[in-house]
Design goal:
Elements: H1 2-9, H2 13-33, H3 36-42, H4 48-74, H5 89-100, H6 109-142, H7 146-178, H8 182-200, H9 202-206, H10 223-232, H11 235-252, H12 255-261, H13 269-273, H14 280-283, H15 286-292, H16 295-316, H17 320-339, H18 343-354, H19 361-389, H20 403-412, H21 415-428, H22 433-449
Helix pairs in contact: 2-5, 2-7, 2-8, 4-6, 4-19, 5-6, 5-8, 6-19, 7-8, 11-19, 11-21, 16-17, 16-21, 18-19, 18-22, 19-20
Organism: Eisenbergiella massiliensis
Transmembrane segments: 21-38, 50-73, 85-107, 113-131, 152-172, 184-206, 235-260, 266-286, 298-316, 322-349, 370-392, 412-431
GO cellular component, one term: plasma membrane
């Protein structure tokens, strides 16, 4: 019996690494997009308020396409499966990312602003949306049981963290020497774009949809069924709220400004990024924790860690040792949200099915993804608007910046993210699905036996 269980829990090496490949690729894109604001303000010479507004408007549009993508994937039926065909979007993601960071600096102010808005919107509203939305639908059809899915999300997180850490450490180091002009930025991003596009497409090549799901026999999901699940599943709103708050923190991403203007050396951010390496060990603990502690509570524990780390940032100033301790704390705090909170969406889809509604994994994922995109947009807008309000000037060196600008940069890297983590903790306090699902499963089993 034990041997049979071990066999069903085993994931092939090619399949395991294939699944992580696209996550590494898309995660690396997120790392690089964290430098978009400073590229726009310091190279393209666009005002931070304008850039923040453009990114926010783009994310609002993104929310509409998220819901459409969820409906599209729920109603896709091809010989490659429901979700797998959309993996080709990763090629477009990297081509457009390179184009975004290749905007000629000599273009007019208005043309540069339009260029940034259009390409950023296309990447996030269309391409990345399809990749984010297909995740849940794909995983339940690629892996036959929850044990394998837990391993893919937890142990796989080690691979993703390691891959993204390489980009996080190398990018600011190369940025310090290469990103001194528009052409330098183009070459820098080009170094990453081609290999990461090839890595990203490996998921399509190596991971097939082989697991039958009951929802697949239901045919197309009607619009009224989508409305029904959004109306009757209150838990997905809590998951979306968590996504919004966490991604506000990611969207602000004031690290490039902090290490440029407070620490005085952007290349030193590599030391903070390198902390993700020892954190890989924590990922081995998640499968054990998830057997004993509800995922929502694990995320809440992470929030306490994250808030403490960001508050320490404010006291640290330019002290690298304190910044590294703070980085370890908030990095640790973000791991559960980044790598295992997606299983909350699976729970929401199961809740739908147990309540007699369509599973609608695509719609559930799209709704959470909408929260992520909205949060990123709000975060980017806050970064731009608050820097502008504090009199930040991308043409000035650190010693010439207004004191209000330096204080604002410190706050964006500390106090505001800490508040976001505290709000996530409060939000998840009301997530009770981990108590509701066992009862619904028992009722369903009893109906089947009667």
């Amino acid at each position: 019996m034990a041997t049979k269980k071990q066999k069903t829990d085993k994931i092939g090496i090619a399949k395991f690494w294939g699944w992580q490949s696209r996550a590494v690729s898309l995660g690396s894109m997120t790392v690089i997009y964290g430098y978009l604001m400073i590229y726009c303000t310091n190279t393209l010479m666009l005002s931070p308020e304008l850039v923040g507004t453009l990114l926010l408007v783009s994310k609002l549009f993104d929310g509409v396409t998220d819901l459409f993508a969820g409906y599209l994937i729920d109603n896709t039926h091809t010989r490659f499966g429901k979700a797998r065909p959309y993996e080709f979007a990763i090629i477009g993601v990297w081509l457009c990312t390179w184009l975004l960071f290749s905007c000629p600096a000599q273009w007019s102010y208005a043309v540069k602003a339009v260029w940034v808005f259009i390409i950023y919107s296309f990447v996030n509203s269309i391409l990345a949306t399809l990749l984010n939305t297909n995740q849940t639908t794909y995983i339940v059809r690629a892996f036959p049981n929850m044990s394998q899915i837990m391993k893919v999300n937890s142990y796989g997180g080690i691979v993703v963290t390691l891959g993204c850490a390489i980009v996080s450490m190398s990018f600011p180091t190369l940025m310090g020497t290469m990103a001194t002009s528009g052409a330098g930025w183009s070459r820098l991003v080009g170094i990453y774009a081609l290999p990461l596009a090839l890595i990203g497409i490996l998921r399509f090549v190596l991971v097939k949809e082989t697991v039958p799901v009951d929802a697949d026999s239901e045919g197309k999901i009607k619009a009224k069924e989508v409305v029904a699940v959004l109306k009757n599943n209150k838990f997905i709103y809590i998951v979306a709220a968590m996504s919004i708050l966490y991604n506000i923190t990611l969207g602000m991403n004031a690290s490039s400004y902090y290490f440029t203007y407070i620490v005085g050396d952007i290349s030193k951010y590599m030391l903070i990024a390198s902390l993700s390496m020892p954190m890989l060990l924590v990922m081995f603990v998640f499968p054990v924790m998830m057997k004993k502690i509800p995922i929502s509570r694990i995320v809440m524990l992470g929030c306490v860690c994250g808030a403490a780390g960001y508050l320490l940032n404010f006291a640290a100033g330019s002290n690298i040792v304190l910044l590294m301790i703070a980085g370890a704390l908030y990095g640790l705090g973000g791991l559960p949200i980044a790598y295992i909170s997606g299983m909350l969406i699976l729970d929401c889809a199961e809740y739908n099915a147990l309540k007699g509604m369509a599973r609608a994994e695509g719609t559930m994922t799209a709704f959470s993804s909408f929260g992520s995109k909205l949060g990123q947009g709000i975060g980017s807008a806050l970064l731009g608007v608050l820097l502008g309000a504090a009199a930040f000037d991308g043409n000035l060196a650190a010693d010439a910046q207004a004191e209000s600008a330096l204080i604002m940069i410190r706050s964006l890297y500390s106090i505001i993210p800490a508040i976001m983590f505290m709000l996530i903790f409060i939000t998840l306090y009301f997530y009770k699905l981990d108590k509701v699902l066992p009862k619904l499963r028992a009722e369903k089993a009893a109906e089947g036996n009667s």
